[in-house]
Amino acid sequence: MCDETTDITTTKELVLLTRLVDSNGQAKSTFAKVIPLQDGTADTIAAALKTWLQEKNISIKKVMWFGSDGAAMMTGRKNGVAVLLQKENPLMTAIHCICHRLALAVGQAGERVPYIKNHFKPNLGELFRFFAYSACRMARLHQIQKLLDLAQNTLKEAEDTRWLSHDEACKSLYRNLPAVLMTLDNENKISATSTGLLIWLHKYNTLATLYLLCDLLPHLSSLSRCFEQEKIDLQQIDRNVKAKMAVVRSMREGMRPGSRLAKLQEDLAVMDAWRILNCPVMTQSGRGRCQSPCQTIMAWRKFSASLIILVQERE
Q1: pLDDT tens digits, residue range 39-88?
Q2: For labelling alongside 20, which of 67, 70, 298, 302 has CA 20 to 30 A away?
Q3: Domain-wise residue ranges, the chain
Q4: Which SUPFAM superfamilies match (predicted)?
């Protein structure tokens, strides 16, 4: 198993791990080496791998699997690293990391939802940077968390390269939402960025999407952790995949009792809570006007169903 990286001196390197099966049939993963590279071409990487095998006196004929992140350079059909190695060992099987594939499926589903791509995800990143890049703002956030008897946690960054980070980012915002709103309100007079973020967090679409993702993403993270186990059971994986698919389908059909999304809808039924939220009509034109709770709930159901359909299509 290998992957490219760049160290602090901007040197391109190849991180190599091995997974061996002993005489008792037990598998063991071991860190092998960090190999400096002149460039990131498939020929260079394949040559580096073969050189390492020769140094360890291991025949390439004994290498049965090649694991990677599925990048075109690694798994390209004509000149990928896997193809170059398979020319010397046709029995070798190339494997695309299943956790990475799951993350790609979820990410691509989100990219096909205009609101998540153009509004929710960029603003979630901006909110993280607003606090993470300022020690003073972070200190004020912690002070308000203490006043509200909340754990002094920080917001998490959602990175496409870290497939569990989106779940952590949404959960951290959900847990700290009261403190975040109060901090942004205090910063409102001196920061235009805080004003924009405060307006965004008061919108119905923002809260509804946050609640939905807090219900959905933990199930996908759980499935990803199942794939990451040192020792896997294919029957267990099959059961888990089917169970998560059933959860996604059930979310499309309606809100489950006890879910965060169900709690949001209960809050919207109370007129006092309703007045706090800025609830625009969700139209394709993007123009908003005030509407009744019943109308917005119907619009939300349509919006959430479209997102769930996209996730199912990526399964």
Answers
A1: 888 999 999 999 999 999 999 998 989 988 888 888 888 889 999 999 99
A2: 70
A3: 2-96, 101-313
A4: Ribonuclease H-like
Pair 166, 158: CB distance under 8 Å: yes
Query: How far apart are the C-alpha atoms of 7 and 24, rounded to whole Å?
Result: 38
* Tens of pLDDT, residues 109-160: 888 889 999 999 999 999 999 999 999 999 999 998 988 888 888 999 988 7
- Structure-derived torsion over alpha carbons of residues 128, 129, 132, 135, reported in degrees to the nearest 10: -130
Amino acid type, 150: L
Distance CA 93, CA 64 (A): 6
Of the candidate CATH numbers 2.60.40, 3.30.70, 2.60.120, 3.30.420, the domain formed by 2-96 belongs to: 3.30.420
Q: How far is CA 248 from CA 125, 165, 223, 315, in A?
A: 25, 20, 12, 10
Q: Are 244 and 220 in contact (CB under 8 A)?
A: yes
Residue 175 zone, left/alpha/beta (φ > 0; ψ -120 to 50; rest): alpha
Q: Could you read off the pLDDT of 255-275 as tens digits, one per residue? A: 676 677 777 766 555 434 444
Average confidence score pLDDT of the chain: 80
DSSP assignment string, 181-221 = HHHHHHHTTT-HHHHHHHHHHTBHHHHHHHHHHHHHHHHHH
DSSP strands (E only) in the chain: 2-6, 12-21, 27-36, 65-68, 93-96
